[in-house]
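Review form for a predicted model. The reviewer records the input and the model, then writes brief findings.
Reviewer: anonymous (R2)
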Amino acid sequence: MRRLTLTHAVLYGVGVTIGAGIYVLVGIAAGRSGMHAPLGFLIAAVTMGLTAASFAELGTRMPVSASEAAYVDAAFGRRWLTVAIGLLVVASAAISAATIAAGSVGYLKVFLPLPSAWIVVGVILSMGAIACLATTQSVAFAGVMTLIEVGGLALVVAAGLAQGSEAITRLPAMVPAALDGAAWVAVGSTTIIAVFAFIGFEHLVNIAEELREPSRTLPRALFITLGVTTLLYMLVVWISVITVPPDELAEAAAPLALVFQRLTGQPLVYMSLIAIVATLNGIVVHMIMIARVLYGLAKQGNLPEHLTQVHRTARTPIVATAYAIAAILILTLAVPLEGLADLAAQGTMMIFAAINLALIVIKQRKEPAPAGAFICWGWLPYAGLASSSLMLMLSAFV
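Model under review:
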């Protein structure tokens, strides 16, 4: 049933993206390239934007669950490839959610002096319970949390800008010298991690089946989500690195809470509360997406039929959600935070390359699009394929 509006979609997209990024990885980004870290986020945003156009067209051509797998199947008609892409989407999302869960521990320990493993188990199981609610309830819950987490970032930005003109006068330090090879390599390394921070906007295609007027709503939601997150990321990362020395920021367990404390003199507890909301939100929306992909693959006959079972009253894919919860829990407990983020970014670039290639093949066949579908310029999927492939290759060297 199509119940979700543009507002629902944007809140979902911003929630899954922001919750997966800034609150967890700003310290790692600062440690990799220091004052140049915001530039890595800008480069990542351009890369994401190229592929967003391909997602917008394919999502309005085929508004279905397990969307990436459906696009690859429509282009190549190879079941093994369809299943492989679908499972890669699931794996990347599970790794992303695990990254967020691991990153939430530093903030939660401000309030709960418990072993990290206990915190992880409690967080993932409680968020799993929310993901099992009816879609409108779980997405609405995520939407409220999104407003809180965006408010937290806005507080950091406002506090930074209130310090005076430093945020403007120091802007030239963001861009390294043209011949400074080491600095540009560091920016490239940050770009890879920043790709992870943008992961999420593309998951909007997996709720296309539940959107009202998907041909209009989906493209708008994709580009609004990407634009909002890019602006917030650039501002927050820049204010963070000019407020706290990058080396110190890289060592902080709760990096944005530290930035807010330095800017306002307020204790860590206030921003830590908002950061907890942000990271928990990211876990919920990833669980929702993973369950829909597994459900969609099973509905297409590519995975066991029991994954199509839905809750009698909530009408959510309950068995698929249980698998999502288990996968996220295992990954969070088994793999360190920074390694998770790199793996998620690499998996995402592989998916993006496949999606752009699928659209190229479909366009070459001159297959007619449904009335009202979003049609991107012909060169965009080629640019998206090239940029995604380049990012994937760079990730092996930085």
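Findings: The two ends are 45 Å apart (CA to CA).
Further findings: The domain at 6-394 is CATH 1.20.1740.10 (Amino acid/polyamine transporter I).
Recommendation: see findings above.
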